[in-house]
Amino acid sequence: MAITVDGWKGLSMGIFTAVSILGAWLAVVMKERAKQVYVTSGVLFSAGVLLAGGFVHLLFDSNEQFEELSILNFQWAFAITGITVVLLECLELALERVIDNKMNHSEPKRETEVSGEDQNSKKDGGDDEERDDQEQDDYVDNEEHDHVHIIDAAKPLASILLTVALSIHSILEGIGIGATDNVSALQSEFVAVVFHKGFTAFALGNQLVSSGYWTDKSKRKYFYISIGTFIGVSLLGIGIGWAISYANSGLTAAIFVGITSGSFIFVSALEIIPGEARIIKGERLAILPVVVCFIAGYILMAMLALWA
Fold this sequence. Notes:
Layout: H1 5-33, H2 36-69, H3 76-120, H4 127-141, H5 143-154, H6 157-179, H7 183-210, H8 220-243, H9 250-283, H10 287-303
């Protein structure tokens, strides 16, 4: 028996949820149990997915929607995508300055505490100096690796932006599924979106785990909130898509798709890739597998445009 339009929409809600949970779970498993080269390969695979999603899918969709609206003779989609990247980078720089200032203000108190400890431990003679020298040596030996984790812990913006960007795209996908009344078109959208959900959930899970939202049990609730938000807005989009299928919201959708495209490009090109490049350099990982995974992620996601 053929599945009706309503049946496809209900099936989409269940399958999208399951695939998203599976993608996030794989990100956690790979981060906790796999070797670093496999984790980095997975992260760069997801970065390739995000780049293709931003350039091939979302930017094209936004530009197509603006052309249909015939709003002046200007490349609005490219302008909105570009300014999104610029503004997010400005926000990143401002957030870094705020974090640096807070860290600098906390250093005097730390130095006072250290001085008090030194006064109480003078009787140990040169033991403290030897211990400090050893700690300094350990720091120098692991400078590159530690630097990466410090950046991940001190810059939560990437995880927040990725959650917001994926959630916006997810709800737009849901609206598209919910507003479709043709079975054939709905089947094509279903195939494209179900693969996209797995890739993007993996990308989001990787970023959250790298930022410490899984390994630190006190922050693990934010991991669940982020993944739950990503899944929930998709289901919400499917629900409201049906209701607004006849509403004239093309301009709003085109703008949000352009913003989401810029967010994808920013997070992948300016956050994920530089961070993983430092890990590759610091731990001297094999180049071939990570490069292959990066290219594969881009190509596979780009090929989904054939069915989108």
